[in-house]
Amino acid sequence: MASPANVALRQVSRLPSRRLSSSSFFIRTASHFRATAAKQAARRCYVSESKPDKAQVSIDTAIRADQKAFTAQTGILPENAKMPGTGMSADVMMSPAAGILKQATVMDEGIRPIYLDMQATTPTDPRVLDAMLPFFTGLYGNPHSRTHAYGWETEKATEQAREHVANLIGADPKEIIFTSGATESNNMSIKGVARFFGRSGKKKHIITTQTEHKCVLDSCRHMQEEGFEVTYLPVQNSGVVDLKELEAAIRPDTALVSIMTVNNEIGVIQPMEEIGKLCKAKKTFFHTDGAQAVGKMPISVDKWNVDLMSISAHKIYGPKGIGACYVRRRPRVRIDPIISGGGQERGLRSGTLAPALVVGFGEACRIAKEEMPYDSKRIQMLSDRLLQGLLSLEHTSQNGDPKRFYPGCVNVSFAYVEGESLLMALKDIALSSGSACTSASLEPSYVLRALGNSDESAHSSIRFGIGRFTTESEIDYVLKAVKERVTFLRELSPLWELVQDGIALDSIEWSQH
């Protein structure tokens, strides 16, 4: 079997010679590869005591040691050496986190649009990436392998991440079930509870609202096909559910109430504590889609009497492809798993966990909890600045309750402007006219329609998402650009001319051809 040093040497030697900075650098680099591989081979000849608490690796120390060894072998500082065939400096290759971020910064500068679509996804926090990278290479053990150090070290990391997720919502770590994201968590909660309690035939009713995320609505429709009855509660013009209507809708055979915490399109915050008390009094399980709320506002599942909560990592500056479902243990919530297999995650969600994603999720939750007071104040300040500027334009209005909304989600209607046309005119700003999951549809937002907005109003709405890395200068640029382009598009509209002339559009009788 070929040694790592020889393999690396052959790979580097195949690169075109014109890309090498010098032949002496190539020789020194190859020697460094051989020396490093020899040291690693020597280290692997010894067997240490196999105990879980001994399964620790300091990645930062290993990176610094590699850099010192490279300098000692070649006499060249890593930042001054170019790696053959890549154009990257050696310090980039030795410290992937720093290198990738450095390259991304260079790529982003002056090229990509300003990002204000934080409800669709958030950029990965560099600290999250730093925490994840070791688990793509050296720490690659299966966290479910209980017989050796490789499994122990990744299991310890995943359990620590589970604690970070639990601490963010005031839960017990044992109540956190890792999933692929909030969509899976929503499916697991709704279908799992309904199927478990529906087997007896005593509880065959589900309640949700008309403004829920599409995956919740589709899960409920799926349960209708299985014989369940679903009540889709309307919301008030503010987007907030009417508690009296909810109380009247709960029946003795209601198995589950599912109402999202923060709406993904208009940012409206539902009265979670009051809903939780009502469900507890009616002895009905309460599920909430917390994807847009977790990490952005204080949450206590016990205070809210929440029985199940869906969470997504990439909404809080973590990686995509990982999320969690909070499932209360006392009193125990019984659900039928929708994925069967090895019995991982308390038997509720089988499948091997991805340690890198789980660790990144946990780190994102840790940072969110630690920096929530600062982030909240800063996002509130940027939101006030944005809203004040947007609403200073005539014939603009905010969608949703202006007093009960998450400030990082601002949804505004610009009358007499087609929303898609405005998005096309704002190509230098990444915005959305609604949920990313339904952005391919030309239909007006069902959320805005549920608020009582007309098709025209719904079509003229834009969602602005503000996050941790949004700057004041970006907000100022967006305000200037929106004002200019809204004015330009309105001047192209014949309806705008009529409005400027004081003609009420409702009074016009349109002829049909």
Automatic annotation (TrEMBL):
One of the GO BP terms on file: [2Fe-2S] cluster assembly
Cofactor(s) named in the record: pyridoxal 5'-phosphate
EC number(s) stated in the UniProt entry for this protein: 2.8.1.7
SUPFAM superfamilies hit by this protein: PLP-dependent transferases
Domain Aminotransferase class V: 114-478
Reaction catalyzed: (sulfur carrier)-H + L-cysteine = (sulfur carrier)-SH + L-alanine
Entries under PROSITE patterns matching the protein: AA_TRANSFER_CLASS_5
Keywords: Iron, Iron-sulfur, Metal-binding, Pyridoxal phosphate, Transferase
Single GO term (MF): pyridoxal phosphate binding
Domain of life: Eukaryota
A GO cellular component annotation in the UniProt record: mitochondrion
Family: Belongs to the class-V pyridoxal-phosphate-dependent aminotransferase family. NifS/IscS subfamily.
Function: Catalyzes the removal of elemental sulfur from cysteine to produce alanine. It supplies the inorganic sulfur for iron-sulfur (Fe-S) clusters. Plays a role in both tRNA-processing and mitochondrial metabolism. Involved in the 2-thio-modification of both 5-carboxymethylaminomethyl-2-thiouridine in mitochondrial tRNAs and 5-methoxycarbonylmethyl-2-thiouridine (mcm5s2U) in cytoplasmic tRNAs.
Name this protein carries in UniProt: cysteine desulfurase
Organism: Imshaugia aleurites
Gene this chain is encoded by: NFS1
